[in-house]
Design goal:
By secondary structure, the chain is α/β, with parallel strands linked by helices. It contains 13 helices and five strands. The protein has a five-stranded parallel beta sheet with strand order 2-3-1-4-5, with helices on both faces. The structure holds adenosine-5'-triphosphate and magnesium ion (MG).
Length: about 280
Amino acid sequence: MDYTRKYRVEPGSKLRLDRIDPGDTDGKSDKQQARAEIVQANQRLRELQYLLYAENRHALLICLQAMDAGGKDGTIRHVLGHMNPQGCRVQPFKAPTEEEAAHDFLWRVHKVTPRRGEVVIFNRSHYEDVLVVRVHELVRKKVWSKRYAAINAFEKQLADSGVRILKFFLHISKEEQLERFGKRLEDASKHWKISESDYSERAFWDDYQRAYEDALEKCSTRHAPWFVIPADHKWYRNLVISRIVQETLESLDMKLPPARVDIDAIRCKYHALAHGDGG
Ligand code: ATP
Ligand code: MG
């Protein structure tokens, strides 16, 4: 299955989120049925990240956006959980500090992008500046409406310098969100996650969906595509994202760097000697 093609927002196309089923599992009935594919995807992801790190040529930036309880944390655990922590980083974006707010909106973003060989996941991202900022009118329309072009130019510059960019919108239904909030209420270990604003933000659900549609339409490009990931089923969400990351990394045609020394000579010099010494 070509997950990349199936869930990518085609550049220049119109997007209607209400026409995309958050409960889609591509005909797979449950996690058990997909288990073999999940295990294989995770295994391959680990190998590819090792290659990325060793080759030290490309970088990978993954942007995660979702409504509250959309599954950003779970996705991060899942995707990064199968990678070597050396070479991976998670970068959260909260409301800007005073210093950040005193700069242009991309100032805080650029300096935390991945270096060569590295995988970085943005937990929220510069897109908040055309999402929450737009929905709550934190700046005037005249200001936020220019940001789409700024984002495209910024991402193009990153891509041109070797950063692969994948942007995932975890698409959940409004009902599923309420269900997940309810489960948090029942689980004392998750009480710290609950805030009143989780509920009050639900009044803005439709505004957020419009803001997401606009952002995804305007900023899904060849060099930095957006994907709408059906996310009501966590196992399917994880599978699809693993697969898309895998497909992207495969396309880089990475190779382990050649040895920098004469391996046979080293073996001969140190190991043959050690054996000869009886040690
Ligand atoms: P969780 O999903 O687990 O609750 P979180 O990412 O929501 O984690 P919080 O500390 O709850 O973390 O929320 C961060 C808040 O910061 C979000 O409400 C988000 O909208 C807000 N935020 C992020 N970037 C900006 C921005 N540029 N301007 C204003 N608010 C922002
Ligand atoms: Mg939150």
